[in-house]
Amino acid sequence: MSQVTSQPSEASKAEQFLPNNLSLPLYVPLNRDFQRDFEKIFRANANDLTTPAVNQLRSATKNYINYILENDSLGFDESTLNNFALAYKKILESRCNLKKFESIGADSRIMDYLKTSQPLTLETLDMYHSMDKPNYEEILSESQSFTSTTEVQNHLKLDEFYQFLRGIIFVLKHPEQPVPDELADDEDLGISGGTISLKDPLTLNLFVNPVIATCGHTFESSSIRQQIQEHPSGVMECPTSGCDNRLSMSNLKSDTLMKIRIRCASKLQQTNDDLDIVH
Ligand SMILES: [Zn+2]
Question: What cellular-component terms does GO give this entry (predicted)?
Fold first, then answer.
C-alpha cells in the first residue's frame, strides 16, 4: 500500500483508518438524499408530467379538428391524426409506467431500506456494507399489477378521447360505416354491416350542423330544436322509433364525429369525381 505523501497530514491520517479495499455502495453516504429523491421520483404526483401533456395534446388535437371543420376546402390528414393518436398512447403508457414505479414504493423491502437513516460513520460502515440494497428491477419484474401492453390497452378502451380519435381515423375512409367496437387492430373484423345515414331523419337533408342526444341519436340542430320548442314542457320523446329517451335543449350536443363524416364523404366524393374526369 503506497502512502500519498502530497496530501495534508489530516487526510493521510484518515486514510490509515479506512480499509484500502473500501468500496462504498453507491447509495452511501447519500441515504437521506436517496430517500428524498425516491420520494420525489416515485411518489405522489410531484413529478407527474403526463397530466399537462395529456391536456396539451387534447387541446392541440381539438384545435386541429376545429380548424379543418371551419375551413370547407380542407380535408383531414390521416398521418396527422395518427400522430396525435400515437402520441396520446405513448403518454398513457408513460402514465402506466409511473404508476408501476409508484406502486413498488410500498414494497416492504424498499420501505425497510428507506427507513434506515443512521448517519454514516466508521461504526455504521459495516451495517451499510451488509445492508441489501433493494433490487428495483427484480421487484418491478415481480410486480404483477401491470402487464404493460394489456394495461395500456385497457386504459385506451376506456379513454373517451382516444376512442373519439380512433373513430375519426376510421371514418376518414369509411364515412358512412359505424365505427367498429374496440378492437382494434383488425378493423375489418369489427365492421358489423349497416351504414350510418348522413341525413337528418326529420328533414332527410344532409346534416349541416348535427347534434347528438344522450341516447346517441343524431339530428339536424335546427329541426330538432324546432320540434322541442313546440312542446310546452320543453321535453319530448326521441323521434327515433323504439327510443323512449327524453330530449330537451340541454341534452343535445354538437356531433363532431358526424360533422367529420360529412366532410370526409364530400372529400371522397370529390376525389372520385376528379378521377372520373381524368379517365
Ligand atoms: Zn334516441
Answer: nucleus; Smc5-Smc6 complex
